[in-house]
Amino acid sequence: MQNMNLLSEVRGHFMTPLPRRLGVALSGGGDSMALLHILMQCFQGQDVEILAATVDHGLRADSAQEAQQVSEMATKLGVDHEVLQWQGWQGDGNLQDQARQARYQLLEAWASRNDIPVLALGHTADDQAETVLMRLARSAGVDGLSAIPVRRQLEKVTLLRPLLAVTRAQLRDYLTALDQTWIEDPSNHDQRFERVRIRQAMDLLEPLGLSTAALSTVAENMATAREALEHYSFIAARDVAQIVSGAVVLDQSKLGGLPDEILHRVLTRALQWVSGATYPLRRRVMGEALEAVRSGGSLTLGGCRILGRAGRVWICRELNAVREEAVQPGQLWDNRWLLSGGDPSGIEVRSLGKAGLLLCPNWRQLGCPGVVLEATPALWTAQELVAAPLAAMGNKWTAKTAKSGEEFYASLLSH
Ligand SMILES: Nc1ncnc2c1ncn2[C@@H]1O[C@H](COP(=O)(O)OP(=O)(O)OP(=O)(O)O)[C@@H](O)[C@H]1O
């Protein structure tokens, strides 16, 4: 790709009016350094201020020094730069995943603190192709194979990946022609990482026609298919699903006409929305759930209870999966219910695990009995579940469902 083409490819991702401020997630590697240079060239002489930030994960001995080096490179280019520190690693769980989530959170917070509406990331066509291969290895469906999106809307910031059609080699050539340097991350050669092994395997796949370009095209095709599926799932959800007291309730008589893929999407999102999980459940664990829903049966899955009752299928929270610290007076039962109007110091709420929730008066109301809400399938309304037992204990609470149905329908669309 010639320089001019490279610039117009990147420029083409920006709609007018241009953002007044543009953030760059700058790891200091070749991709994001090239991105910074290209954006500076694209918007030279225009009213777009470019700022950059680097996340120091603090996981390698020289990471702070490297972040400092990146900061100096940016400052030399006249770009305002900030190092964002991550100190959250507790030593257990999936390090890669936690580091990635933390990185995105820190970058998003930085952008929103600095009134930056668009944050550019340096993912390339190679990242896209590698991601498609990794997803193939997990037997992914349309969503997984659509891999890395060009654009994603977060609460206040749009993530933009304008280099997704550009290869890593093109970016290296571009930087070399400008006589610019970058930092090589040693973990890019660490065989323990799946991405590194996949990258090496690409050399063998290329002669078979499984090229970076071909795999990137698969991702593009899948992203188009995904959009169509989301559109129809959204329409289907509005028809078959209602939100009742924080539960998703499906009308079983309407499910027969739905293709498996559409029902799968509605159900996956329903389980994710009810449980509050960060990620949707994997496709391979959803088969049983689909069957239960179609047959009106019951099942516990992913922190939810699926309950067939009189022509309707309820997808509600499994009490046993609610963490104790998530249950608080005022915001009861991991944010399912909002309580207001009573005396917040007058009540204690405890999770009893399998047994249910215990609502008991504290020292101010000694003498009143506590109320145990059983975890066994009872399909309470907010009033029945919360306000009535509390009122019986002399507390004048009102309760309303904290989660809105619109939120659920919107969750079927990726933004
Ligand atoms: N430490 C960092 N600080 C700032 N930006 C970073 C950092 N690491 C990665 N990035 C940004 O993310 C882009 C992609 O890098 P990389 O492929 O390592 O990220 P990733 O987080 O694994 O990507 P994803 O999780 O989205 O697949 C980089 O080009 C850069 O824009």
TrEMBL record:
Its EC number is 6.3.4.19. Belongs to the tRNA(Ile)-lysidine synthase family. Residues 23-200 form the tRNA(Ile)-lysidine/2-thiocytidine synthase N-terminal domain. It holds the Pfam family ATP_bind_3. Its main location: cytoplasm. It catalyses: cytidine(34) in tRNA(Ile2) + L-lysine + ATP = lysidine(34) in tRNA(Ile2) + AMP + diphosphate + H(+). Keywords: ATP-binding, Cytoplasm, Ligase, Nucleotide-binding, tRNA processing. ATP binds at S27, G28, G29, G30, D31, S32. CDD domains: TilS_N. This is tRNA(Ile)-lysidine synthase. The N-terminal region contains the highly conserved SGGXDS motif, predicted to be a P-loop motif involved in ATP binding. The keyword Cytoplasm applies. Coiled coil: none annotated.
